[in-house]
Amino acid sequence: MSSAAPPVSIGLPVYNAERYLMGCLESLLGQTYGDFELFIADNASGDATEELCREAARRDGRIRYERREKNHGAVGNFNYACERARGRYFKWAAYDDRCAPTFLERCVERLEEDAGVAWCHPLTRHIGPDGEVVPPEVDPALPPGADSHSLLNPPGLRYDRAAERPWQRFRAVTLGTTWCSDAFGLFRTDALRRTRLYLPCFGAEKLLMAEVALLGRFAEPQEVLFDQRVHPGAASNLRNRSAEAAFATGGVARRFSTARLTLLRGYLSAIRRADLPAADRARCLATLALYVGQVGKWRRVLHHTLSGRGLGDDTWKRIAAAKSVAAASPGPR
After folding, report:
1. CA distances from 301 to 240, 293, 296 (A)
2. Which of 116, 171, 161 has its CA nearest to residue 281?
3. How far is it, in rounded angstroms, from Cα 251 to Cα 266?
4. DSSP reduced 3-state for 106
5. What pairing do the DSSP bridges indicate for beta strands 117-120 and 98-99?
6. Under a CB-based contact definition with an 8 Å cutoff, are residues 172 and 213 in contact?
7. Which residues form the Glycosyltransferase 2-like domain (predicted)?
8. What digits encode the pLDDT tens for the residues 5-64?
9. Helix (H, G, I), strand (E, B) or coil at 285
10. Which domains are delineated in the chain?
């Protein structure tokens, strides 16, 4: 690999990733925009991940592979992958997702043409364990009538991530979708380094996107260029606080501790540290009050906190159940 830093750095944190790893690597290495480095941070995998990564690095000089001595948890490994980036643009990749060949090309174009854009991500579709496209009618994260996931013009919200004012973008992220597929978009590296990256708890994607939204606008090429896989082994299917803590940090969850309180403190810190006029800071705090004041969720949150339930939403189970119902329903007559 050349010692000169390429424009784009891709960070791929992995742990026991052998099942889907090669599909991910093929989609990244097959990009039409090829001037990038791919840094793979291996969290001390115990399967064939190391062998697959070393073989891929031998065949393609854009790959740097590093096996870490111990498992630092997903959060530590994601942040480490970003810290090793040399390019002016950075993208996280997940071992079980796939990018269309023009993903980087389209995102680089948008970042190059508009200095006010902090991060960019195209439309998303969900795929199942074997790569099958999840039908829109059984995808619980899709609004009615949509066939792909967009983060612009969210239903029920006045603003979106591309709004002009920082507080408007903050509101769009905080009160908007919980499917933060844009966490796997292309970022300006200097913008990410003005944040605290991922906090050491499960579910910190939305907080990071809110921090980035305070720094710049979001761009969304209107093409489906990202396949996000939902499957039984995905983090979204973790159903208790202990499993989420082990995944995120490699540690053990304390009794009655909750990621929600950690994230709330994170939002407050992001608002406090942001370079905002006093009026906009007040609007961000008002947004956070709306977020906390969703009374309809309090009973569920209290139950989850006392019972040890985590933040996972059983996405794959919900899709599988919807598929079963659809298959059992009589067709049109």
Report:
1. 13, 12, 10
2. 171
3. 20
4. helix
5. unpaired
6. yes
7. 9-125
8. 999 999 999 999 999 999 999 999 999 999 999 999 999 999 999 999 999 999 999 999
9. helix
10. 1-95 (3.90.550.10), 97-309+321-333 (no CATH)
